[in-house]
From TrEMBL, chain A:
<protein>
    <submittedName>
        <fullName>Cytochrome C oxidase subunit IV family protein</fullName>
    </submittedName>
</protein>
<keyword id="KW-0472">Membrane</keyword>
<feature type="transmembrane region" description="Helical">
    <location>
        <begin position="69"/>
        <end position="91"/>
    </location>
</feature>
<keyword id="KW-0812">Transmembrane</keyword>
<keyword id="KW-1003">Cell membrane</keyword>
<feature type="transmembrane region" description="Helical">
    <location>
        <begin position="14"/>
        <end position="32"/>
    </location>
</feature>
<feature type="transmembrane region" description="Helical">
    <location>
        <begin position="38"/>
        <end position="57"/>
    </location>
</feature>
<dbReference type="InterPro" id="IPR005171">
    <property type="entry name" value="Cyt_c_oxidase_su4_prok"/>
</dbReference>
<dbReference type="Pfam" id="PF03626">
    <property type="entry name" value="COX4_pro"/>
</dbReference>
From TrEMBL, chain B:
<dbReference type="GO" id="GO:0004129">
    <property type="term" value="F:cytochrome-c oxidase activity"/>
</dbReference>
<keyword id="KW-1133">Transmembrane helix</keyword>
<feature type="transmembrane region" description="Helical">
    <location>
        <begin position="45"/>
        <end position="67"/>
    </location>
</feature>
<keyword id="KW-0472">Membrane</keyword>
<dbReference type="GO" id="GO:0005886">
    <property type="term" value="C:plasma membrane"/>
</dbReference>
<keyword id="KW-0812">Transmembrane</keyword>
<dbReference type="InterPro" id="IPR000298">
    <property type="entry name" value="Cyt_c_oxidase-like_su3"/>
</dbReference>
<dbReference type="GO" id="GO:0019646">
    <property type="term" value="P:aerobic electron transport chain"/>
</dbReference>
<protein>
    <submittedName>
        <fullName>Cytochrome c oxidase subunit 3 family protein</fullName>
    </submittedName>
</protein>
């Protein structure tokens, strides 16, 4: 058994993903405290949501080997909302117009 | 329900559960066609629950985006008034709790039930820590005059985070149930579909917070 296969079999590879998730969370917190709002910051945060969600879905939930319906629906959810976050930064007036109840 | 404890392997659960429920072959065939050769982790019922919960959170997220484009000033200033450190610590706590759950599953698969129980108790402990921090954060907000009706941003903040907090509460109950099943010997290395189901639900709670934290505390 290769070293990587051995690590995966006993779950030690999960430690690496945990460290990555912690690091990205701390980066998000630093951005929240210091960075001014911008399109770039919005894209970076949206990308981090996608990466964190994929790490949890693929490795903690182990959905990679699950039904493709479940796997793809879970992934789609965590691509869709970060995308809306970027779109709501780019086109706020359009979204406000589309979601207005009045004439 | 005995269906989840009597299956020899997780990966045949979807089909065998369906065959338990009906004597007709046709529904089973349809289920096989729907999911193909891949597995349904835990059991099909938990995925109905998970997608229902994600739909509920999805409605909250849609409301967030609609409110945000209609009240940009409130959503620009709101995150600055929240306790970012409390939100960050809770994110770290939930990610760690998700890590503990899957480590517990690996321990049980490795026929180390005592280690599995320890990992799962750490998950429950993380859940309790999350609830304590959230309660403290709400108190901190109220002391500064931040309440549900302060403005639209805080209305979205309270409804979303309170709803999430409830999920952490009953998700912890699910993990405690799984612990009791391991301790009684019902869940073993080869038969622990119920633990997988509880774990998937817990990961869903973590995933929801992975979305909530940046939307409410980080993005402006």
């Amino acid at each position: 058994m290769s070293k990587l296969a051995s690590l995966t079999a006993n779950g030690k590879h999960l430690n690496v993903y945990w460290v990555l998730l912690i690091a990205m969370t701390l980066l998000s917190a630093a951005i929240a405290e210091r960075a001014e709002p911008s399109l770039l910051i919005t894209i970076v945060i949206a990308a981090m949501i996608v990466i964190k969600a994929r790490l949890v879905i693929d490795h903690f939930m182990e959905l990679k080997s699950a039904s493709p319906y479940i796997y793809h629906m879970m992934n789609a959810y965590f691509y869709l909302f970060p995308l809306i976050a970027v779109l709501s930064w780019l086109f706020p007036e359009t979204l406000a117009e589309w979601t207005s109840l009045g004439p | 329900m005995s269906h989840t404890t009597t299956q020899p392997q997780d990966d045949v659960l979807a089909v065998t559960l369906a065959s338990d429920l009906t004597s007709e072959n046709e529904p089973v065939d349809r289920l096989k066609q729907a999911f193909g050769p891949k597995v349904v982790p835990g059991n099909p019922a938990i995925w109905v629950g998970i997608f229902s919960e994600l739909t509920e959170f999805g409605i909250f997220f849609v409301i967030y985006f609609i409110a945000r484009v209609h009240y940009p000033q409130e959503f620009l200033e709101g995150p600055l008034q929240l306790h970012t450190t409390a939100g960050t610590i809770n994110t770290l706590v939930l990610i760690t709790s998700s890590f503990c759950v899957v480590k517990g599953i690996f321990a049980l698969r490795d026929s180390r039930p005592d280690a599995a129980v320890r990992w799962l108790w750490m998950t429950v402990g993380a859940g309790m820590l999350y609830l304590i921090i959230k309660y403290w954060e709400y108190q901190w907000n109220v002391d500064r005059g931040i309440e549900v009706n302060t403005n639209n941003f805080f209305a979205v903040y309270y409804y979303t985070t309170f709803n999430h907090m409830l999920h952490v509460g009953w998700g912890s109950g699910g993990i405690i149930w799984a612990i009791s099943q391991i301790k009684s010997g019902r869940y073993t290395a080869d038969n622990h579909a119920g633990l997988i189901a509880a774990a998937c639900y817990w990961h869903m709670i973590d995933l929801a917070w992975i979305m909530i934290f940046p939307l409410l505390y980080v993005l402006r």
